[in-house]
Design a protein that fits this description.
- The protein folds into 2 domains: 19-227, Orthogonal Bundle (Fumarase C, Chain B, domain 1), CATH 1.10.275.10; 235-343 and 370-538, Fumarase C, Chain A, domain 2 (Up-down Bundle).
- The protein is 52% helix and 6% strand.
- The strands form 4 sheets. A 3-stranded antiparallel sheet has the order 4-6-7. A two-stranded parallel ribbon has the order 1-2.
- It contains 20 helices and 9 strands.
- It starts with 18 loop residues before the first helix and ends in an 8-residue tail after the last helix.
- Helix 11 runs antiparallel to helix 12 (277-289), helix 15 packs antiparallel against helix 16 (371-399) and helix 18 crosses helix 20 (527-538).
- The radius of gyration is 27 Å and the shape is elongated.
- It is mainly alpha-helical.
Length: 546
Amino acid sequence: MVTLLGAAPAPAIAATAPASVADAPVAPLKLALDGARLTLPDMLHIVRGNPVELSLAPRAARAMRQARGGALTALDGGQRVYGWNQGLGPLKDKPLDDDQQRELQRRILLSHAAGVGEDVLDGEALLALVLRANAMARGHMGVRPKLVERMLALVNAGVAPVLPQVGSLGTGDLQPMAAAGLVLTGEKGQARYRGRTGPARRILAEAKLPVSFPPKAGEALPIISGSGLLTARHVHAVARSTSLATQFEYAFALFLEATRAEAGSLDARTHAERRIPDEEAVAGRLRELVKDSGWMTDEGRARLHEKLPRVQDAVSVRAAPHIAGTLRQTLDEARRIIEREANASTSNPLLFPRRGGKGHEFVMGGNWDGAQIGHALDTLNAQITDLGMLSHELSGRLLSPKWSYGLPADLASPPVGLNSGMVQVQTVAAALIPEMQTRAAPSGVLSRPAKDGQEDHNTMAMASARNLHANLDRMETVLAVQLLMSAQGIDLIRPDMDGLQLGAGTARIHKTIRAVVPELAGDRHMTPDLEDMTSLVREEALLGIK
């Protein structure tokens, strides 16, 4: 089905292999967290919901125990610490006695779990737990190793806390991760396990995990502070965007064949002169896809009665490698941001050895802020939207005999006029583009002060993540339109191209599409075709084609 805003959620993650490969059994990821070596491939494995066997590295556990002891000593020595022996937010000046410190932890989770809206995907929730556990393993939050072990026990068992999307201002994942904390402690909340959703205590019991895990002093904020869920959603978005970027290249290669485009725009020399490696790589992959095409030649163009040299194609055609390469460059930078964030201490407060080696001290700072991720999400959203607009423009060219250099009007089969072709299919993409443009406005410039001025600047990064994922849903359909129409354009002029072959890569792409959606020989109900094509994009059946 076509998945749009408010419909069923997107798939758990964009895979990097064809569906036939992705459906094969996946070996568990065995990893000991130490706060420094979590990689993007590890995170992709987790967010896809694949099996894991995670543990806390012994050296990290030792460092955490030492830090915990230092934290308690610092408190006994009289240091006043936010979220430990002091209240939160505008109540930061309220001191707490020993009994209140312990009670504060459960009340932090209860009061902060105020999120609403659709739930994040289970893979994102599980990865968020792992990211918080890895941050704690660095030994600067003063929590017990047992807390990390509890988090990893849930992940290993596949118990995913139900986390609502709406509420976080991107200045820490307070609301959704408080919901995770309620599940971790067995206090409240909902969880999912093996396809079933229910109260946390019941789900924990079904998974044969202890149903109660009371937090100790100072352990609530490390659960909810930082950007664990935001980073997990970023990982998911980067994977989905990478998949769609590759499938755009396939759709564009089909478009080149259908319009018998000039191959000169892919010449390696011109792209080398731009000095953008990702642009060069995109052009190189496109050259491989259309390699040995007889359609993209003077003879191929003459078959549809082009008597004069085309000289050059439209801007949308010539600039496509640059536009797609710019997206790839942004994705490269996003991967670096993610790996840095995943192996950093992101919480408030943080604990450090005192200078001179005499005990530990807490430092209250802003290491939970999500500005870098938020702006990266906004940038990625803008470029996905730009690619969507390009895809829509290319699809529009296919409807016009003038702009397509001779394809039948509206890609209609004979008799044209009696048959209306694909004009309304392209209209679906046209309807989605303004929605994408609206949702591409950067949330990172829309800070709102909150909490009596104590949090007077907020990154709004979770809104950035929500907007990006909504646009990735739309992009799947926009790209499906381009693929469907390009394949139809090829079929309509194939008789004129008798004796000329498609490129080896484009021939395989076309064959894969036609195995799911037959050629439009005459007008028919188009919604099923577009839904099937969108599913083909979402399920990544084209990936792996060279």
